[in-house]
Amino acid sequence: MATIRNLKIKTSTCKRIVKELNSYEKEVETEAAKTAEMKERDADPYDLKQQENVLAESRMMVPDCRKRLEAALTDLKATLAEIKESNQEGAEVEEAEAVITQVETVVQTAES
């Protein structure tokens, strides 16, 4: 049986993963700019290769993070449904619903 505590944990997990996703997306932009700058400057080939590896690693994290976010969202929805079935209410339920809306927006934006 789902509890309010579980709901809080799952809500926080979704919030954290959204922050991680935003952070990784910003990191990809930063690293891409840095790589482009290094190419313009004709940087040392070894340094350029290392920078490209950093960029590739950052790019790999974005789809992984999205996948974890979708799994966490599904888990949160299931927990919220259980709590609503047992007629439990509170600020945590409202917060979970708000987070679900926010995360669905992020997921839809990512799919576009």
UniProtKB/TrEMBL annotation:
Pfam families per record: TBCA
Main location: cytoplasm
GO BP term, example: post-chaperonin tubulin folding pathway
Coiled coil: 66-96
GO MF term list: beta-tubulin binding
InterPro entries from the UniProt entry: TBCA (IPR004226), TBCA_sf (IPR036126)
Compartments, record wording: Cytoplasm, Cytoskeleton
Keyword annotations of the record: Chaperone, Coiled coil, Cytoplasm, Cytoskeleton, Microtubule
GO CC terms: cytosol; microtubule
Region (Disordered): 28-48
Domain of life: Eukaryota
Family, per entry: Belongs to the TBCA family.
Subunit description: Supercomplex made of cofactors A to E. Cofactors A and D function by capturing and stabilizing tubulin in a quasi-native conformation. Cofactor E binds to the cofactor D-tubulin complex; interaction with cofactor C then causes the release of tubulin polypeptides that are committed to the native state.
Protein known as: Tubulin-specific chaperone A
Source species: Rhynchospora breviuscula
